[in-house]
């Protein structure tokens, strides 16, 4: 398939700029390619789509206050997005500036700290902090890194609403947005009805927003993201499967985590970077159902969803969502997708 096969027209006014006051008030488009087709629901209807014995797999990453602002030593303004903290005083980052920065140049942040450019590493810069640690710096001076399609500065409300209620391990520059719809009351209700929970960690990187720049998808190089699928997750998945339950991933990041850990055929503990690129033709090994938000046109996330539920059903569902005026992207509405069993052999993934 080609990049253009994943295009759809989206009016800009359907891109959600702020979250709804109530996490669970979002709409939910349920898609079952092999069953009852498509249904327009509310997220609070999610329990009706689940059954006792199902296992929900959440991504417990926490969004860092990763956006920083400052000036180059030449006086020009810069915007920094910390991609990954390497150690207390070093980090990899994207830098938006009028010109590329050379090793040895320094940056004075608006809050008073100073950074030095160590070296260029692909699209990223290795930065050193002259004094202190990056976690402390971001905590005091950083901003919540709202996605580029949200056309406003972050504010105090984003501190809580651009995090899931179960976020625990800091390291992401974007939220695993399917999880933003869950509140504590929903989690309690699902536990009481016999739905199981498991948690993986995938630190979402800024590469998730990078456009695919080639029409031939075989030439696309997937960005790397750090994943942790531990032994407890594997035991819970195997136990749920043995008892006849479904594995329901909350978000595409949970899908990539589980499928990366099962890349050799069997789900086993996995800890490290993954470049798994899931697109139509991929045969899923672990995940049976998926809760996800709506994704950007021509994005790798839309390709993953199309691989999971079928290209035509997904693209038809997106056109329906536009016509029905669903809210799109990070602060938007959600979908519940059942896996399309009419898959083809896995010839399209790479770690």
From TrEMBL:
Q: Where in the cell is it found?
A: Cytoplasm
Which reaction does this chain catalyze? 7-aminomethyl-7-carbaguanosine(34) in tRNA + S-adenosyl-L-methionine = epoxyqueuosine(34) in tRNA + adenine + L-methionine + 2 H(+)
Q: Which Pfam families does the annotation name?
A: Queuosine_synth
Any idea which UniProt keywords this protein has? Cytoplasm, Isomerase, Queuosine biosynthesis, S-adenosyl-L-methionine, Transferase
Q: Which HAMAP family match?
A: QueA
Q: What does this protein do?
A: Transfers and isomerizes the ribose moiety from AdoMet to the 7-aminomethyl group of 7-deazaguanine (preQ1-tRNA) to give epoxyqueuosine (oQ-tRNA).
Q: Name the NCBIfam families for this protein.
A: PRK00147.1, queA
How would you summarize the oligomeric state and partners of this protein? Monomer.
The similarity annotation says: Belongs to the QueA family.
Q: By what name is this protein known?
A: S-adenosylmethionine:tRNA ribosyltransferase-isomerase
Which species does the entry assign this protein to?
A: Thiocapsa marina 5811
Gene encoding this polypeptide?
queA
